[in-house]
Amino acid sequence: MRTQKERMLAGDLYIANDPELREMNKKNRRLMYEFNHSKFDEKEKRTEIIKELLGKTGENVYFEPPFRCDYGSHITVGENFYANFDCIMLDVAPITIGKNVMFGPRVGVYTAGHPIDHEVRISGLEFGTSVTIGDNVWVGANAVINPGVTIGDNVIIGSGSIVTKDIPSNVVAVGNPCRVLREVDESDKVYWNSLKEAYEKEMIECHTV
Questions:
Q1: Cα gap 140→156, rounded to integer Å
Q2: Active site residue: 37, 114, 118, 207, which one?
């Protein structure tokens, strides 16, 4: 017979009020408390806590406090991850995030789901569905990423978007529900690299004056 944790991670119905899961959640809450109550200049301490809290991280990861999650151990974030204030990740199922990903303030990533039938729902049964986010993704402020969603590489999710379905790679997507607005193409690369070159030129000129 499978444990409630095994059922949870398999995406099947499970009971959250289970001794093993409660104990995992207690450990998580202790670490989150330490993280969220750290002093503003204790960056190294916060990084150590995050690496203990999460399942796997890159070397360079940064979360602005406060940060909330259910267990933490089911979250993987890649190299150069940044989350702004008030990030929430409900990781009753795996959350997998690639490299060079940025979250604006109050981004929510939710894997938890509840039965539509109210009698089953109030019995305490629930389930989770995993979320995957690719590389080089920027998620705008107040965006919500719902259970079961996969977001591809090189994607921008507009602020306030509610992502209910998969988003392909190399697009800008916005809205409620979130839809593809346009592709990210070569003209974007040309435009933004021209601005970058102008910035670098100005910086060089400032240092040579």
A1: 8
A2: 114
From the list 18, 21, 132, 42, the residue with the least C-alpha distance to 78 is 132
Percent of the chain with pLDDT strictly greater than 90: 96
Which residues have CB under 8 Å from 11's CB, separation 6+? 93, 127, 128, 129, 130
Tell me if 16 is assigned to some domain. yes
Give the span between the Cα atoms of 109 and 72, in whole angstroms.
12
125-135: pLDDT as tens digits: 999 999 999 99
Residue 194 is assigned to a structural domain of this protein: no
Over residues 87-106, the pLDDT tens digits come to: 999 999 999 999 999 999 99
| Domain enclosing residue 38, as ranges | 4-184
Q: Is 114 a catalytic residue?
A: yes
